[in-house]
Design goal:
single chain, about 350 residues, alpha/beta, 2 domains, 6-stranded mixed sheet, two-stranded antiparallel sheet, 15 helices
């Protein structure tokens, strides 16, 4: 595949792990699946296997090839990591019961040997916050780092859920059959738990690809791409930009809409730069913020606008204390009819945002 082309293949999730070394970008979001989501995936696998192991489609995995580096995972971290966790649970269970299958899982799906360090390293690396904890748990290292972040707790819960699922799978069967029973799960994850693996040339193409896909979590990944671009352009001021982005996200958390970050970015860019369509968000950010100082300035604007933007979703917000009751009623109507254009510079609603906090 030429570097300028988009490539795709339909593969089992375990096959994607088997055929590639993969890495979640350092500044992308952490592992975020709860026990409920992990359990649902395993239950779906169990149902498909019980019904004969037919194909089960799990959407799209979006990646960017990088020269001399692992394949960068833009979307699909949760599914790939959770599949790897399940494979590790099967390996751990079989180590003393069917060592050959356990070794096969380790060498084919989970790890490769790094000759320079003389160590096994995971085929999938997570982001900076999660990778060391994930690596230690996945490889069975004796020195597992302490659980210090919410994502570590979620990873710990996923490993525990996988272990319990394995015990449930083999319960009631003769011990001599456990290897064959669990091997059915390995084969299913390798050949039948299918995803479309997309390889796109760059971040901008990945962003535009999301416009044409209807897949779980893609709009969140769009905002991750914007975040990664800004952090990559922030130079030695990266900590400032990280903090501003966190403050922006914190302000938006009060809005019950899982797609709110990308919607807010489009509205904020419209206020700053004139009308911006959703397909133009990434390109507009690139044009606005090409060096550390413009990136910091843009991050400051996002933080300020996010607080005002969140207030437009809440007629009881303290921001409206200094306005007449008519303003609160107008905000109620805005939300009752979900009139999104009034939140941007394109309409009078921009006056609210321009006043900042």
């Amino acid at each position: 595949m030429a570097e300028s082309e988009i490539g795709f293949a339909q593969l089992g999730l375990a096959s994607i792990l088997k055929q590639n070394q993969l890495a979640v970008p350092p500044n992308q979001r952490e592992y975020s699946w709860t026990e409920k989501e992990v359990r649902t995936l395993f239950q779906d696998f169990a149902k498909a296997i019980a019904e004969g192991g037919g194909s089960y489609f799990l959407g799209t995995i979006v990646t960017i090839p990088r020269a001399d580096r692992p394949l960068e995972v833009v979307d699909g971290q949760q599914r790939l990591a959770t599949t790897a966790i399940m494979l590790s649970a099967i390996r751990d269970y079989l180590r003393k019961r069917d060592a050959m299958i356990a070794e096969s899982i380790d060498s084919e799906f989970l790890t490769v040997i790094d000759r320079a360090s003389r160590a096994r390293v995971p085929r999938l690396r997570l982001n900076l916050d999660d990778n060391e904890y994930f690596r230690a748990r996945l490889t069975g290292a004796a020195d597992v780092p302490p659980v210090t972040k919410p994502s570590h707790k979620l990873l710990d819960a996923a490993f525990n859920e996988a272990r319990q699922q394995v015990e449930k799978i083999v319960s009631g069967y003769d011990g001599k059959d456990h290897g064959d029973i669990l091997n059915r799960w390995i084969n299913f994850m390798e050949a039948s738990a299918l995803a479309v693996l997309l390889r796109v040339p760059n971040d901008a193409d990945a962003y535009r690809m999301f416009e044409t896909l209807n897949d779980r979590g893609l709009r969140t990944s769009q905002s991750d791409l914007v975040k990664n671009y800004l952090l990559g352009r922030s130079g030695d001021r990266i900590s400032e930009v990280q903090q501003k982005w966190a403050f922006m996200r914190g302000a938006l958390e009060s809005i019950e809409d899982e797609d709110i970050t990308i919607t807010f970015l489009r509205h904020a860019l419209t206020i700053i730069n004139g009308v911006v369509r959703e397909t133009q968000v990434y390109d507009t950010v690139q044009n606005l913020a090409k060096a550390p100082q413009p990136v910091v300035t843009f991050a400051n604007q996002l933080e300020m606008l996010a607080h005002a933007y969140a207030a437009t979703y809440n007629s009881e917000h303290e921001k409206w204390n200094k306005y007449s009751d008519a303003t609160r009623r107008a905000i109620e109507v805005l939300n009752l009819f979900d009139i999104k254009p009034l939140r941007t510079d394109a309409r009078r609603g921009a006056k609210i945002l321009r006043k900042g906090n």
